[in-house]
Amino acid sequence: MSKELVGTAASPGIAIGKVLILEEENLDYQKKTVEDVEGEKARLHDALERSKEQLQAIKDKVEREMGNDKAEIFQAHLLVLADPELISAVENKIANEKINAEAALDATVEQFATLFANMDNDYMKERASDIRDVGSRILKNLLGIDSVNLAQLDEEVILIADDLTPSDTAQVNKDKVLGFATKIGGRTSHTAIMARSLELPAVVGVSEILDIVENGDQIIVDGVDGDIIINPTEDQLASYKNKAEEYEQRKARLAELKDLAGETKDGHRVELVANIGTPKDVKGALVNGAEGIGLFRSEFLYMDRDSFPTEEEQFAAYKEVAEKMDGPVVIRTLDIGGDKELSYLDLPKEMNPFLGYRAIRICLDRIDIFKTQLRAILRASAYGQVKIMYPMISALEQLRAANEILEEVKAELKAENIDFDENLEVGMMIEIPAAAMIADILAKETDFFSIGTNDLIQYTTATDRMNENISHLYQPFHPALLRLIKRVVEAAHAEGNWAGMCGEMAGDKRLTPYLLGIGLDEFSMSAVSIPEVKDGIRNMSLEEAKEIAQKALTFSTAEEVEAFLSNI
């Protein structure tokens, strides 16, 4: 019998396939006294050998498909796995205390990891996380737990999970994964953003899904309307196959707009650009007709590795994007913290991480990290239309401090006779209400604004967008949001600057008339959303958009605004 669920449409398209549930692994075990010491040692070595085979296979695949830099973390793990001191310590513990391999391994790994974590040398501190990661892998193999390797799936599946981390999605093999559905998350969750980057259909926030589906079930994920059908009937299957075909036909028609400008019927031009995370994403941006990159999330260069990227590694990535794009490339400086952690950066645990130590707040403390990145970006600016953008600015003092450091870096490069674009534009994200309210002041000391609506909505409505109990309060159509965004655009224009938007609202075609009507100059979004937004822009005049924007501002509630804009 089929079952139907509804969630949030997070990435368009229709996927039909078999369920694969990604479950959190239970690593609980009982500490036992053993008599067969040699037998326990043999179990340990079997688990070590299996772990080695798994890590080598992952390293080879990542090296082949994602490059040597991404594979370095697995090389480091292989070195830990082969450490004779670690292995002999576990063996001695089994022999001396006559305990099972699981208990001996767990205690030894924690002992080694703590030792490294307490060292003064930052590099050695970073080894603690490697040791714990490798320890978990060996423990899983001792317990007979088969981890799902998303890079090495044997058949086509649709992933079902509580949530997917960025590192989960980074491993996804697009040839095998047809789509996602998750229990938590909204349209702006990282799962949703990554799904759009990968151009995979996704539905998120399906609260009951893990209670209902089983591995092997047939499932339909409708990323257009947010519907989930589990074990569909023949009629439902036929209906959704037709819908998938219609979606592909519309996608093909929209693809014909690829080389046309984002221009209204009466000739008003705006820039339609893409949000990306790595140089690999440029291909999707170009295929979908992006005129540039409005948000290069540089933090992805820092994730899924065991140490900071060097200046040369960053320079190579920024230069590659600048050279491939025949248009502007806005690079956001490191936006780590909140829900984006680095295993090698010992960030404090916080009660409210989204309101805590993150993004520019870290960079202004860790000037060494910040300067390395700014040097790499400036050097890349010699190879294209690169612009710098600071995230999480809430006060003028932060903007000035960041610009002072930037000037120091420019002076250093000049002294070293290294080329860069001396007229490179420097802007900031507007994602905090305080920044929106003083946009007129900030505009005097920036070249541009880019409105980060994912956080601006969250902070303005005081709503954690990942909290399923209050997700209904996270309202992109909230009248307060519409007014704040208009205020920011007007403040930028008053100083002769341009104003863009890189939050997910820019890719919501229902909001296109409003944003166009208030004068937004640049729309940056997941590449896959560009064709739909371009189609909307090319089918209206600026005057029509202004009238719609004016009318939208007269409503009192988010529901009224959404109903009005959804019916245009």
Instruction: Give the total of beta strands.
Output: 16
Query: Based on CA inertia axes, which overall geometry fits?
Result: globular
CATH architecture of the largest domain: Alpha-Beta Barrel
State the domain count.
3
Overall mean pLDDT: 90
Low-confidence stretches: none
Strand order of the largest sheet: 1-8-7-3-4-5-6-2
Kindly report the CATH topology of the largest domain. TIM Barrel
- Biggest β-sheet strands, sense, barrel: 8 strands, mixed
Number of helices: 22
Gyration radius (Cα, Å) is 25 Å
Structural class: alpha/beta
Distance between the termini: 38 Å
Helix content: 40-55%
The CATH superfamily of the largest domain is Phosphoenolpyruvate-binding domains
Enzyme class: transferase
Binding site for Mg(2+): 431, 455
Binding site for phosphoenolpyruvate: 297, 332, 454-455, 465
Coiled coil: 34-107, 230-260, 392-423
Q: How does this model look, in words?
A:
The structure is a single chain. Helix 1 packs across helix 5, helix 11 packs parallel to helix 13 and helix 13 crosses helix 14. The strands form two sheets. Strands 1-8-7-3-4-5-6-2 form an eight-stranded mixed sheet. Strands 9-10-11-12-13-14-15-16 form an eight-stranded parallel barrel, surrounded by six helices. It folds into three domains: 126 residues, Phosphohistidine domain (Glucose Oxidase, domain 1); 107 residues, Orthogonal Bundle (Enzyme I, Chain A, domain 2), CATH 1.10.274; 305 residues, Alpha-Beta Barrel (TIM Barrel). The mean pLDDT is 90. The chain has 568 residues and is an alpha/beta fold.
